[in-house]
Amino acid sequence: MLIDIDLDAIKHHIHTHTDLRELVHEALLFDRVDSTNRMALEMASQGMPGGVAIFAEAQDKGRGRMNRTWFSPRGFNLYLSLLIRPHQAPREFPLFSMATAMALIVAIERVTHLRASLKWPNDIFLNQKKVAGILLESVSDGGQAPPLVIGIGVNVNVSTFPEALTPIATSLRIASGVRVDRNIFALTLLDTLAEQFKRLNKEGPAPLLAALRQQCRTLGQRVHVATPKQAWEGIAEAIQEDGALVLKMGDGTKRTLYMGDVTHLREEPLPQTMGWPE
Ligand code: BT5
């Protein structure tokens, strides 16, 4: 039996949790949209203040990075866009992707007791497959506090994927073997997002990145990183304080990457003491 997302429960949760209210003051739920991120960006460009969470039961044009699509069937999963207006400068916005990744990992652990990991920069993995993706987008609205839209897609209960995704995608249900209550997961994720963003705002990126380092399956691996213009191969050595990946190339030089598609060339156990910049 499919259980709909319960907007009243979400609103009640927001109103009764002070920390969460600092992040979200309005929650909207749509049955079917093209893309929750597109809607949030449109609202932002019309001057909507930060603090809005947009949920949808289904997306016709759910999007990933670089015009890719996000498989968004109705009724099984979570599609959420948060519109916020951070006090940080836009060059620091990638840190919110890292905080969102940590929030997803903690929420998955709280609800399913499974340990997910981050494939830098925006993929959440369970059992070597992608269970969730993060898409950060922004628009310039000329205002003082530029908007940031954080799109989050989580495969919660979906059990079959299109053929192309079957080898690479999983869901909380597939990985845990039991159906997960989408409402409990949604409320837990809102809580962990509020916790992580509050910590980032109060303490800066160091504690967040130190925690994420333990959950990042990319660090220490030999990787291929492709950007629209170029590709590099090397050892993923560190994540910088601004969220960028530091790659150590074959000739010993280092390269700092702010975006890209990472392919792990060979899975190796994570070393316990990877070097992080102080
Ligand atoms: C992402 O992009 O992983 C970001 C996904 C963000 C989706 C959310 S849903 C709510 C909000 N509104 C939106 O319109 N989007 C956001 P990227 O790293 O580019 O990964 C995209 C790739 O992941 C695709 O090319 C597929 O290979 C794969 N993929 C597509 N749908 C998937 C799914 N449901 N589960 C796992 N992998 C998927």
List keywords for this structure.
disordered C terminus; binds biotinyl-5-AMP; 5-stranded antiparallel sheet; 27% strand
Overall description:
With 278 residues, the chain is an alpha+beta fold. It is built from 7 helices and 12 strands. It has helices at 7-16, 18-23, 36-45, 94-112, 172-176, 182-203, 205-214, and strands at 26-33, 52-59, 78-84, 117-119, 123-126, 129-137, 148-154, 222-226, 231-239, 245-248, 254-257, 261-266. Strands 1-2-3-7-6-5-4 form a 7-stranded mixed β-sheet, with helices on both faces. It has a 5-stranded antiparallel β-sheet with strand order 11-10-9-8-12, with no helix packed on it. Helix 6 crosses helix 7. It is globular and about 55 Å long. The model is unreliable at 268-278 (pLDDT under 50). The structure holds biotinyl-5-AMP (BT5). The site of biotinyl-5-AMP has 26 residues, from helix 3, strand 3, strand 6 and strand 7.
TL;DR of this structure?
This protein is of the alpha+beta class and 278 residues long. The protein has helices at 7-16, 18-23, 36-45, 94-112, 172-176, 182-203, 205-214, and strands spanning 26-33, 52-59, 78-84, 117-119, 123-126, 129-137, 148-154, 222-226, 231-239, 245-248, 254-257, 261-266. The site of biotinyl-5-AMP has 26 residues, from helix 3, strand 3, strand 6 and strand 7.
In total, the number of strands is: 12
Main sheet specs = 7 strands, mixed
Structural class: alpha+beta
Shape: globular
- Please state the CA-atom Rg, rounded to the nearest Å: 18 Å
Q: Strand order across the biggest sheet?
A: 1-2-3-7-6-5-4
Tally of individual helices: 7
In the predicted model, the low-confidence regions spanning at least 5 consecutive residues are 268-278
Strand content: 25-35%
Helix content: 25-40%
The run of helices and strands is: HHEHEEHEEEEHHHEEEEE
Bound molecules: biotinyl-5-AMP
Estimate the mean pLDDT confidence: 93
Distance between the termini: 50 Å
